[in-house]
Amino acid sequence: MTDPYIEADLRQFLGVKLGRDLSALPSNMSLTNSLGLDSLAQLELMAEIEVRFDVYFSEEQLNQMQSIRSISEALEHMAAREMS
Amino acid sequence: MRIGLIAMSGVRVRNPELVALGVTLPQFVNRGKVIASLPSLGLLTVAALTPADDEVAYREIGEVDPTDPLEDFDLVGISSFTAQIDEAYALADRYRGAGTPVVLGGLHVSSMPEEAAAHADAVVLDGAEGAWPAVVEDARRGRLKRYYQGARSGVFDAPHYRMPRFDLLRGRPYNRMTVQTSRGCPRHCEFCAASLRITDRFQQKPVERAVAEIEAAMEVIDRPFLELADDNTFINRKWGKQFLRAIRPLGLRWFTETDIGVADDAELLRLLAESGCKQVLIGLESPTADGLRGVDPHDWKHARHDGYLRAIDRIQAQGISVNGCFVVGLDNHTPDVFPALRDFVRESGLLEVQITVQTPFPGTPLYARLQREKRLLQERFWDRCTLFDVNFRPRHMSVETLEEGLRWLFAEVYREDERRHRMRRYADIHAERLRTPAVLAL
User: Fold this and answer.
1) What pLDDT was estimated at residue A1?
2) Which of B50, B60, B156, B431 could bridge across to B205 with cysteines, CB 3.0–4.6 Å?
3) Average pLDDT of chain B, as a whole number
């Protein structure tokens, strides 16, 4: 279970960026498949998340994270690492 | 009359090892999926040139099952590229055997009209504008002529111009759309088999007509990714900037092909980015300058080579990814070209890469020269004109070396870790751009 605040923050950010209401989007659904994003749009979105949340994803994370859940978990993990 | 227009589509590779590689290489497969998912703009234009009283049905070849009875039409029009031409001929023969007249057109047919005429009641040369209305009237009277000559100029103006019938695509699962804003390209690369072969000179569609077509396409397909069907969209920079300003309000995401010269114009790049252009395909052709000698009549690309890396940086820094297209097996290429290309791709930061092998399409100066030099491997090799199969004897290596080199390059460049590295690097560029004050202020 991810931190609800991180996930909510991410949902709101993605909703503004994509111009859609993502409040009901299941957290484990692929953004590419569910929102019809092409691979370039997905990559740009990940870069925007990096800037917004001041994080840096590895090459593997950039390629593998497809859902709100997986991205939220990575953000939560990075936040925890920074605080420790 | 009920007229069936059948589009041949798809990217096919004959080399079994490349086919095997292609199954597991995301970017090659992705590009193939993209090309195969575009409708045939040529046939949508043919439909628009058909009199309103006649019914037109648009079909993709994938909808025509060879085991099913043929769909009933009074006239069939088929357009095909070279690699699918034998399938087009086979379908034409089937329809003609059933008593339905068939008209063939497209780039290959325009290059090989006599060959095509053996499989058709009529052949249209150089595009449907200026020809198709007469084809339909003659078909109605049962008096089709052997050949019809399309217009090689003035195709975007009255009396020839018609807006393509995008409405025929309503309800079909396309997520990409294509519009043509120009025909031809003044670079005249020796191997080019695109629209420059069917036009006397570079032709530009008026901005308002191009925008109207885009808007019409957007009414049919929800949020389409737009691909311009041009050889080189920004030859005319003044036109280009007007066009970019005009489409900026449409909120598009789009792609086109152009040349490296766009990187010289900062205003053009800014307008490109602001209009929603997300990728440009640029024919870089060779990682080495020497490989570019003789590619075009004025060695224009050769003169640009030293600036390739800086140009790619300038374009991508604007948030426009570059799909760098390379051709291996050019006459000045030695086996060193394969590691050189791998290294160039790594150094360049190109987000996407398209690697093809020099292909002598019929009707091109390359084909004519290789035929004169007796370097074509076969007299007829149309199903191997895939851009990935070798059809000629290279100058500085064997056929086997070129084939092995291409396989090696595919495996190297499209390896998962290389692909991820390119993605990470492009994300870095995009993030850096987002952090600049001008972008943060938006």
Assistant:
1) 57
2) B156
3) 92
